[in-house]
Amino acid sequence: MSEEKKLPRIEIIEKYCKGCHICVEFCPTKVLEMKGFVVSVKDLEKCIKCMQCELRCPDFAIKVHAE
Amino acid sequence: MAFDYEKYIRPGKLPHIWCPGCGHGIVMKGLIRAMDSLKLVKEETAIVSGIGCASRLPGYIDCCTLHTAHGRAAAFATGVKMAKPEMNVILVGGDGDGTAIGGNHFIHACRRNINMTYIIMNNYIYGMTGGQFSPCTPTGHKASTTPYGNPDPGFDIAKLAIGAGATFVARGTAFHANQIDKLIAEAIQHKGFSVVEILDDCPTTYGRRNKFKSVIEMMNRLKEVAVPVKAAEKMTAEQLEGKVLTGVLHKVERPEYCEEYAKVIERAGGAK
């Protein structure tokens, strides 16, 4: 019955990421994680498209593409 | 949909020089969103700065920019505005640049009420030069030049601006990122000298000397100390102890300097 959820696309520009953890910490559903020095997507299914990571990233490294 | 910051950034300038977790990047994004919401034309917008970490900001934004002497952003910006009153002039700088070395220029720009917007990123320290204490470093806090704690009380930039005669004063924090663009947009639209103080974090030279374990701890501190002005009306003096008010703190109308100066020119019979 459940309609398939349309997932956003989280674009991470690794060249810009300085690994400050802000996005990982302030994501309300813990979608992101650190992989080495840069951020990566851990669980895209949980994303609620709140855009908090994109808003708070000081390094212009995250973009959330959602319709 | 993701916001397209790139259209306001000079090609090839990113990644920027600011340290991991520095809030200046968050403020720059707020400024770009504010510029976009007001549809400012790049050719008619000038961003002026002095020296310091925050003052590196104009280098990244694709519009008319001016990177000037330490503390002299207000002086150079006044020149730009007087020569071209139709331009939107935005000043950016840090607390050391704006209130210590440029303190004199800052108070007199406030007094004149010239139609410009000053964004002060207050990170409580001189970040770029090695973490010396600034006039905004809170009492007891440590800096490279006050290793046993700062004996001076810190400036309240908003109160200083109101006292000096600024007609629009607002305060935000780097944590409350979605509020920054709204405050800056309102300040740019205000006719007169508008000051927006953004409380910021400097994990490299301030945080590590003052026992902040991480950037997250510094961000959470900003979250804890900030109280919106509306919420503060219902709070007692005891509850407000140690808190900082955020939002639009002061907004009045007063004759604007460029217009008043044009009248002087007219009275003198010049500039036909």
TrEMBL record, chain A:
<keyword id="KW-0479">Metal-binding</keyword>
<feature type="domain" description="4Fe-4S ferredoxin-type">
    <location>
        <begin position="38"/>
        <end position="67"/>
    </location>
</feature>
<protein>
    <submittedName>
        <fullName>4Fe-4S ferredoxin iron-sulfur binding domain protein</fullName>
    </submittedName>
</protein>
<feature type="domain" description="4Fe-4S ferredoxin-type">
    <location>
        <begin position="8"/>
        <end position="37"/>
    </location>
</feature>
<keyword id="KW-0411">Iron-sulfur</keyword>
<dbReference type="Pfam" id="PF13187">
    <property type="entry name" value="Fer4_9"/>
</dbReference>
<dbReference type="InterPro" id="IPR017896">
    <property type="entry name" value="4Fe4S_Fe-S-bd"/>
</dbReference>
<keyword id="KW-0408">Iron</keyword>
<dbReference type="GO" id="GO:0046872">
    <property type="term" value="F:metal ion binding"/>
</dbReference>
<dbReference type="GO" id="GO:0051536">
    <property type="term" value="F:iron-sulfur cluster binding"/>
</dbReference>
<dbReference type="InterPro" id="IPR017900">
    <property type="entry name" value="4Fe4S_Fe_S_CS"/>
</dbReference>
